[in-house]
Amino acid sequence: MFTREELDQVIKAYDIRGLVDEQITPEFAFVLGTAFARFLMEEREPATVVIGEDMRPSSDELATAFADGLNSQGIDAIRIGLASTDMLYFASGSLNLPGAMFTASHNPAAYNGIKLAKSAARPVGAESGLLRIKEHMIKGIPMSPGPIGRTTVRELLGDYVNFLLGLFKADEFSSGRRLKVVVDAGNGMAGFTAPAILARLNVDVVPMYFELDGNFPNHEANPIDPKNLVDLVKRVKKEKADIGLAFDGDADRCFLVDEKGNLVNPSALTALIAIRELKRKPGSTIIYNLISSKAVPEIILENGGVPLRSRVGHSYIKKMMAENNALFGGEHSGHFYFSDFWRADSGALAALFAIAELSHTELPLSQLLAPLNRYFSSGEINTRARDPLQSIEFIKEAFQKEFEIDELDGVTVTGPDWWFNVRASNTEPLLRLNVEANSQKQLAQVKTQVLALIG
């Protein structure tokens, strides 16, 4: 069995992640399968789990061991093979079954992990099941005395593509202008799903790193880090493309580059999608997370919507969307959630919204988004700290006498024409800093001051 200390290192707030062969092993996956089966029985969930896997060398073996663990408890498994995480959510939602996705998302090649969902793509995070699953893994689950489950295989890529495109008007992608789109799949799962989607659009595709390779030979599949966008930026400029798309390893996140080679602020994409969705369903609630630009709630209000602020993390946003019947949710980290997609996040769907909007205007992407970029942002700055929580407390004490303090997630400090948030990462031993200000000078001053305190 596994000790609490061992499991505490890999079972995170939203998912499970660790080093292959050291922490995430076939034995671990088997025991996790038995514990997830017991959890599903307690929740009175369907007795079948749909399983997807990314292109990492270890994913197939781990998914097999997990399915064996499920089967040992009388739970059936449906293997859908290679999949993006949002394709697994589609499977869970459309089949109304619990799901498991074997991926370490944007983490380097040495890692792997598992994202779990209940039926209809409902998230399983720390508070909604992972802690209970951990307890089952510590205690151990005996072999079921009843019949064992069986594992079958099912192909769902075509159904997934049809569903995504079915969320748009029939002529949405044929009636607009033809676009040139550069796509950097980062050797991740977008190299599998993007060709099937883009083949149905009125676009000229320039593919980059579509070869599935979990060793990530070209760059890490982590587009939130600017160094991983260098190749895409160069290619967009060289090709004189209309838009560049960068996906993370499991393709549930999408980042945009405009025709000038500039990274599109994810908050601007949140605002763009919110405007489109509010035209479709006026007065709806839109969720945004607390590190999004303050332009996002402003734009939601201006377009007749109801903005609701959330802490960072997919399980929190999905829960908030369900509780408030929200139409859409956007995170500054590049995750975008759609009520019509079982409140799950989809990088492909976010990209389709951007392409649809761009194709129906003569403006270049930079000009289309200019009204949505109202303030100056630092982007996310990650710093290693010996004691992240102690650092956050120190920063809070330095500002709380003079400025408004909010502790929804880490600490958010708001000044007269600037704000910043510092929070501990839920997946890595890092402090994450985001700063926004009305001017570049103010941004630099606040950023320097906070980084000095962290140091």
Secondary-structure topology with pairs:
Elements: H1 4-8, E1 16-19, H2 26-42, E2 48-53, H3 59-72, E3 76-82, H4 85-95, E4 99-102, E5 111-118, E6 122-123, H5 126-139, E7 151-153, H6 157-166, E8 179-184, H7 190-198, E9 203-208, H8 230-239, E10 243-247, E11 254-257, H9 266-280, E12 285-289, H10 295-302, E13 306-310, H11 314-324, E14 328-330, E15 336-338, E16 344-345, H12 347-359, H13 365-369, E17 376-377, E18 381-384, H14 388-399, E19 404-406, E20 411-414, E21 418-424, E22 430-437, H15 440-454
Parallel strand pairs: 2-3, 2-4, 3-7, 8-9, 8-10, 12-13, 12-14
Antiparallel strand pairs: 1-5, 4-5, 5-6, 10-11, 14-15, 15-16, 17-22, 18-22, 19-20, 20-21, 21-22
Tell me what the structure shows:
The protein is of the alpha/beta class and 455 residues long. It has 4 domains: 4-156, 3-Layer(aba) Sandwich (Alpha-D-Glucose-1,6-Bisphosphate, Chain A, domain 3); 179-257, Alpha-D-Glucose-1,6-Bisphosphate, subunit A, domain 3 (Alpha-D-Glucose-1,6-Bisphosphate, Chain A, domain 3), CATH 3.40.120.10; 266-372, Alpha-D-Glucose-1,6-Bisphosphate, subunit A, domain 3 (Alpha-D-Glucose-1,6-Bisphosphate, Chain A, domain 3), CATH 3.40.120; 376-454, Alpha-D-phosphohexomutase, C-terminal domain (TATA-Binding Protein, 2-Layer Sandwich). The chain has 15 helices and 22 strands. The protein has helices at residues 4-8, 26-42, 59-72, 85-95, 126-139, 157-166, 190-198, 230-239, 266-280, 295-302, 314-324, 347-359, 365-369, 388-399, 440-454; strands spanning 16-19, 48-53, 76-82, 99-102, 111-118, 122-123, 151-153, 179-184, 203-208, 243-247, 254-257, 285-289, 306-310, 328-330, 336-338, 344-345, 376-377, 381-384, 404-406, 411-414, 418-424, 430-437. Strands 1, 2, 3, 4, 5, 6 and 7 form a 7-stranded mixed sheet that branches. Strands 17, 18, 19, 20, 21 and 22 form a 6-stranded antiparallel sheet that branches. Strand 15 (336-338) and strand 16 (344-345) form a beta hairpin. Helix 2 crosses helix 5 (126-139), helix 9 packs parallel to helix 10 and helix 9 packs across helix 12. It starts with a helix and ends with a helix. The model has no long low-confidence stretch (mean pLDDT 95).
